[in-house]
Amino acid sequence: MTKLTTLGEYVILKQHEYPHATGELSQLFGALRLAAKVVNREINKAGLVDITGASGLENIQGEQQQKLDVYANDTFKAALLARGLVAGMASEEEVDFVAFNEAHTAGGKYVVLIDPLDGSSNIDVNVSIGAIFSIYRRVSSPDGPVQLEDFLQPGNRQVAAGYVIFGSSTMMVYTTGNGVHGFTFDPSIGVFYLSHENIRTPEEGLIYSVNEGNYVKFPEGVKKYIKYCQEMDPDSKRPYTSRYIGSLVADFHRNLLKGGIYMYPSYANAPTGKLRLLYECNPLAWLVEQAGGKATDGNRRILDIEPTELHQRTPFYIGSKAMVDKVEWFLHEYPQQ
Ligand code: P6P
Question: In terms of CB atoms within 10 Å, which of 1, 155, 237, 328 comes out highest?
């Protein structure tokens, strides 16, 4: 007999495990859950209504903003604002952080950083995409509006992190520091059911994910590691399998469950990599560590990087611990000339 536990019930059941649990984090998850359902509905209709395709606008990154990017950003923002627990939000789709200064949010003790729809260039070709979120307690005085310092905290200070993957099924995967738990959405009744409790990622994986089209630009150590993955060595089950969807949440989710490594190195035209530290790398880094994996920039633990800018990027190596250790070895053995 399987147990039917919803995301809402599970968060409340487990809230006693949060330090200083006051039920507020549970309420915050309610906002994220609601927004995920609303965005999921629009994504599922995307092929049917004129909401796909470019919005004609650009985001802070100068990337063509897809209409669903904007819709997802506004939906998460509205849901978080309504709860009154969040003092402000930073987003890939917002130039600066957004202070929630309304009277009912002034004392909000949390800030949320989000990539509301990562991989959105895949929307029109029906490839899985995702939302990634990261939650901190604010550090500035609750008597005043939220400050930049509330958002520029290292990933090791997160109180919750997770993602929603909008794929063949929609799932929410999160951690509050007590393991990683996955919930699958049942659209017929509009609930997320616990489907993957205490996710552990295999210490060794057989999948490597990187855009090999950039091979010639990669650091020497990355080139050597890719060749290592492709060598014939049955004892170590090589060659590995190459899988790269071009949608971070989809590649990460598959590797989390099956084992594997995702790499987005730095190279000449991306000297600090492409992925953003605060709302892409930090939340996924905490999740993978909570599941037994590892995440670095090639030298440092992602979660220990002290942020200096809201939209700063970082080289990103994340996944099965033995695989991340191995690429780090190659990076140190073959330092960039
Ligand atoms: P490239 C999507 O734009 C994204 O941020 C991630 O979802 C994805 O893994 C990566 O960029 C793909 O980048 O340069 O390989 O197309």
Answer: 155
